Input
Amino acid sequence: MNYRHGFHAGNFADLAKHAAMLTLLRLLRNNEKPLLVVDTHAGAGYYDLSNPDFARSKEAEAGIKYLMSRDVPESLKPLADYVRAKNAKAGFKGQIGIYPGSPVLILDHQRAGDQYVGCELRDDDYRLLHDRIEPRGQAIKADGYKVALQTIEGDEDLLYLIDPPFEKPDDYKRITETVRDVLTLRADARFLIWLPLKDLETFDSWLRHMEREIGEMAPMVVAELRLRPLWNPMKMNGCALVTVNAPEDFAPLLTAICEDVVATFGEAGGQARIRIL
Output
């Protein structure tokens, strides 16, 4: 399955990921150091939900548009308010015509002095990303895993968002290697990692590998959002959010986000699971 951002813009997984990112950014604002966010698979910046290439999946209708048509749970209100304001500013009064991806969302919530680097290899998405975030942020047409290791020498706080499209068979392996190698050089680096949940063994195998490679290097918070039981490996049955070195008060806030997303979008048998490793 291709998890290119545009195909799934505004779906339940985006809402969980972006609500978690907003929460992390809010908590990290209390730190005195400037923050550098490196987005290893940035996409196009934001998405036109009327684009036929992206609209045919109707994932936004079942995601952000559905959320905005009902009472929004407390943990998702900051994201919902932001998306509503972003659309109003773009001229979409009372409707959702665009969905801000991670690059735009992060830049809109950074402080003066904070920095953002977005990496994208697709030519079309890179051009859009460059046009949409420069000069506020930096767009790089490069392998985000490699860029992650090139951004560790400054004095800034570091937060890495790793959210690949999983088009390549080695993405799981490269995520683990990147986290391990960055932590070896910067033990205080933080990560927010998104992964699909189709079958349990794929995710559990990756998580076992992470635990072996990282060991005692840093604490992890593992959140599984299961919209339905994981009985059909051909479907995206949910997603996982894994944080490394998250602030101490982040776990209960992530728990609320995950429970609210599953309660809003889940089916019978859906559940949210949170573990601290």
User: Anything to note?
Assistant: The two ends are 29 Å apart (CA to CA). Residues 27 and 190 are 12 Å apart (CA to CA). The first strand starts at residue 35 and ends at 39. The beta strands are 35-39, 46-48, 98-100, 115-119, 138-140, 157-162, 190-197, 220-226, 238-244, 271-276.
